[in-house]
Each structure stands twice: as structure tokens, then as C-alpha cells.
Write a structure and sequence with these properties.
alpha/beta, Rossmann fold, about 35% helix, single chain, 4 helices, globular, binds flavin mononucleotide
């Protein structure tokens, strides 16, 4: 059974909640799903057909949540190749922060691309100013993502 690795970066639990809410959608599509609350680059070791989904919020001024910092540090310091990685990205933020809106999600996307990973589809950016419950935006997005990217395996 192929696997979806959901890697979470969160300060207050919103991104983790998104991960938990979308998990059954991938299970229904034929995947086993692991949610990584303390993500490490080693979690990305994948077999053909596996995918990663990043659910990452922004804190400070466009900064990564603390639990996600070791992942980013490892990527920057060790520069592993991620050329076999296919991923999706859900960024949580708040547009009232202006220029740093979804800064962590955007920086992560650029970093993954730099390391050769392939994003499937567009990045989802969830704005807390517009969407009170992030799940309300994430669930339909994931349903559409599975459909459009033809990720269903059952
Ligand atoms: C102290 C603090 C700093 C924040 N800084 C940013 C920011 O720079 N850019 C942004 O888009 N959102 C920012 N946010 C908003 C959060 O990213 C947003 O509320 C998100 O939904 C939180 O998700 P989480 O519960 O997974 O941490 C900030 C929130 C707080 C409390």
C-alpha cells in the first residue's frame, strides 16, 4: 500500500488539526497515512507511489514554527537530494501580517524545489482572516487534489 506522509509545522495546533482531518481522505483513496508532528528529513524516505503533504503555519515574522525548525535546518545544512519526492503543500497564515503572509509555507516550497522535489498542483494558502476553521478550506482542497492529480489507488 502506498503511503502519505503528512509533515506538520504548527504553533497552536491548527495545522495538526488540518492533518488529522484530511487523513481519512487519503485512507479512502487507498493510502496508509503517517502524521509526523516532529518532522525529520529522514521521514521522507519514500517508495514509488508515496507522497508527502506538508501542513505548515507561519509564526513570528514569516518564520517556521519551532517544531519544524530542525527539518528546515537539516535540509539547509545537509542539502540532501529530494528528486524522488512528490509533495503537496498547505500553508496556514494570516494576511493581516502583510508581506510575511504564509512566509514559512512559501519558503518551504522554494526550499523543496531547490532540493529537486516535485510539487503536485498549486500550494494552498489558508488565510485566517477569511477562514475561521482551516479544515473548511483544506478538506475540499484535498478532495480536489486527489482527483486532479489522479492520486486514487483503489
Ligand atoms: C505570534 C504570531 C505570529 C504570526 N506571524 C504570522 C506571519 O508572519 N505570517 C502569517 O501569514 N501568519 C502569521 N501568524 C498567523 C498564523 O500563521 C495563523 O494564525 C495560523 O492559522 C496558525 O496555525 P497553527 O495553529 O498551526 O500554528 C502569526 C500568528 C501569531 C500568533
Amino acid at each position: 500500500m502506498p503511503k502519505v506522509m503528512i509533515l506538520v509545522g504548527t504553533m497552536y495546533g491548527g495545522a495538526l488539526d488540518v492533518a488529522e482531518q484530511v487523513k481519512p481522505l487519503f485512507e479512502k483513496a487507498g493510502y496508509s497515512v503517517d502524521i509526523h508532528e516532529q518532522p525529520m528529513v529522514g521521514d521522507l524516505v519514500s517508495n514509488e507511489g508515496d507522497i508527502a503533504l506538508f501542513c505548515v503555519s507561519t509564526t513570528g515574522s514569516g518564520d517556521f514554527p519551532g517544531n519544524f525548525v530542525p527539518f528546515v535546518r537539516h535540509l539547509r545544512d545537509q542539502s540532501p537530494s529530494l528528486s524522488s519526492l512528490r509533495y503537496g503543500l498547505i500553508a496556514l497564515g494570516d494576511s493581516s501580517y502583510g508581506d510575511t503572509f504564509c512566509g514559512a509555507g512559501r519558503a518551504l516550497d522554494a526550499l523543496l524545489a531547490d532540493h529537486g522535489a516535485t510539487r503536485l498542483g498549486e500550494r494552498l494558502e489558508i488565510d485566517a482572516m477569511e477562514t475561521f476553521m482551516a479544515d473548511d478550506a483544506a478538506i475540499p482542497w484535498v478532495e480536489e487534489w486527489i482527483d486532479e492529480q489522479q492520486l486514487k489507488v483503489v
